[in-house]
Amino acid sequence: MAAPRKDDVKSAVLNAAQVLLETGTWGDISLADIAKQSGVSKGTLYYHYKTKGEILFDLANRYLSEQWDDFIRWTENEEKDTSLQRLVKYVMERDIASAGLRMHLLCEAQAGDEVLREKLVRRYGEFQRLISEKIAERTNVPADFLTWLVLLVSDGIIVQEAIQNGAFDTQGFIAQGAEYLARLSGAEKTDG
Fold it and tell me: Residue 106: left (phi > 0), alpha (psi -120 to 50), or beta?
């Protein structure tokens, strides 16, 4: 029997980590748990990943890469309404969809995993530039400011959901924000 390919092992490890995160916290999951869940030996796991932080980042990176590709396809689809308010709503809804994984990633980075923090900052920068570019194509509103505002609000919503704040209406907030941006875009066209 041939040894599994490197990509297959990494995929199995990431899938296992994702399954374990659905029922536990990152702090409670050990590398041994991930190895057992993925069906690989601890030695094979350590060959591919030296730390849990590396696994968490690769798991988040896999999701973020899918999110990036989906965003590009969506913004370039001429059949879609990709107006400013729809673009912002799309970004926020997609960011929030990964709330659990993002919260784990943010917590680990904040708790002192410097390598993970640096990778996360780099990914934020890449997303900020891409979203800003797409906003600039649609409006004269300061794109960098609006992009950072959207990313920071998304993170704030993730925190509110994590603490299960029943007083905060996520969907209502996003809808109200989209309405505000529609009015802002309309006023901009009237002024311009």
Answer: alpha
Query: Which of 101, 177, 91, 22 has its CA nearest to residue 169?
Result: 177
Measured CA to CA, the distance from residue 77 to residue 134 in angstroms comes to 13
Q: What is the pTM of this model?
A: 0.78
The two tokens of residue 25 are 């916290």
Low-confidence ranges of the chain (pLDDT < 50): 1-3, 192
Tell me the CB-side half-sphere exposure of residue 71, using CA atoms within 13 A.
25
Model pLDDT for residues 98-137, shown as the tens digit of each residue = 787 888 888 888 888 888 888 888 888 999 999 999 999 9
User: d(Cα 31, Cα 42) in Å, to the nearest integer?
Assistant: 8
How far is it, in rounded angstroms, from Cα 150 to Cα 29?
32
